[in-house]
Amino acid sequence: MEALTAISLAGNVVQFVGFLSELLSEGKEIYSSVEGSSQRMLELERTYQSLSHFTNILQQSTSKEDHGGSSSYTQDATAVSSHTKALNALSEDCHRVCLDLLRTVRKLQVKGGSRQFFSSFKIALKVVWKKNEILDLEERLERMQRTLSLHFYPILRYVLST
Predict the structure, then answer these.
(1) Is the CB of residue 108 less than 8 Å from the CB of residue 35?
(2) How far apart are CA 68 and CA 81, in angstroms?
(3) Is the predicted pLDDT of residue 138 greater than 80, yes or no?
(4) What is the reported pTM?
(5) How far is CA 13 from the centre of its chain?
(6) Are 77 and 158 in contact (CB under 8 A)?
(7) Distance between CA atoms of residues 135 and 37, nearest Å
(8) pLDDT by residue (tens digit) across 47-77?
(9) How many other β-carbons are positioned within 10 Å of the β-carbon of residue 9?
């Protein structure tokens, strides 16, 4: 029984050392950053701010399109209309998740400069704790982005053929 206890204790120590190492690394990066955030968090903010802006524009442009129910529609135009509706719904969801991610990332920045040791450490701890939440939001957004692009192809083909 003592061997299992020793192995369990060693595993816990290794896990704690890994956590502490990640925490110190993140804290050091935040502390030395001019922006008061790690490079990864800054990249996430820029990327998903851009995606949020894009999906907002997409929402506005697809909701303004009105096909009026004319009987002159071809089968392709009807398909394009359904893809446009799907794009609108997806862009709303994507925009909402982008805003959730941006809210989370913006909470992970040191306010008033990064050269505050305790604040940098506190933010680093939050970054490590929120890592899974951020990864989950990123995965959801990646799935939405792939689906958005799949709806673009038929619309693009229709536009180029007319």
Answers:
(1) no
(2) 11
(3) yes
(4) 0.62
(5) 32
(6) yes
(7) 17
(8) 888 877 777 776 676 665 544 444 334 566 6
(9) 10
